[in-house]
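Sequence decides. Our protein:
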Amino acid sequence: MKVAIIGGTGFVGSAICRQLIDTGHRPRLLVRPGSEHKVTQAEQCDLIAGDVADPGALDRCLEGADAVIYLIGILREFPSRGITFDALQRGGVEDTIAAAKRQGVGRFLLMSANGIRADGTPYQRSKYLAEMALKEAGLRWTIFRPSVIFGDPDGRMEFCSQLKKDIIDSPMPAPLFYSGLIPKNAGGFELAPVFIDDVAAAFVLALAESRTESQTYSLCGPQRLSWKSILETIAAAAGKRKLMLPAPAMAIKATASLLDRYPWFPISRDQIQMLMEGNVCTENDSFARLGLVPTPFGVDQLGYLNR
């Protein structure tokens, strides 16, 4: 099967490409000029030069494909540089849907995100609108909503590597965010980290099984872990001990309101808000529905942090 991938050079895209190749599929990747070096196993892929904003490039990538996977996502937007959630996480999906219809590609897999909603942050709204557009497009769709994803990044951005760099390796104490004025249950909000290979396996399985069509799967790991516990695990995997202190979320958000326009500032207001909301699955049976067993989060799975 020829599978067109929009966003195939990133962390998730690279893992999906590896598993597609291992199972006999041939990925067709839309690659921005200058990013060819990011493609793993390039000799077993078809590389189409272009950008998601170019309809012609989308048509070339989807031409002759049996299915398309849309993976483009960003954690922060920088409107002054033309990088926005709406353009990449909604507009890009709608443009790819249009290209799929032009090229006769009826199967569409979308990576969304856990916790999205219409009245959420700009990140959450753009993902929600993309899902709505796909559901109304008349294609055979499957939507995946992963929680935070961990695993060997191979030089790319990844949840645990970023936390190690920004928090564990920093000389400053690790922040245990809390709401309000009193540090009650600081760092107690919960996430459900999901392993990258498990996410990739879900996408590859969906291509082979028609029962996954018109289905939405929330992909969470098997544990609900507090922010504090996750930081402690990352520190242990890195062979470090880390001082952790309560940090008022509203003060961090106030600082971010002044500085999150700059790429060097490590977190945005919206990221803090979504982090404090937690990121666990309300229905935690998606892997069981797929017939897959998710990998637990722990020190043994984080050996890549020492490289």
Notes: Residues 85-103 form the longest helix (19 residues). The mean pLDDT is 94.
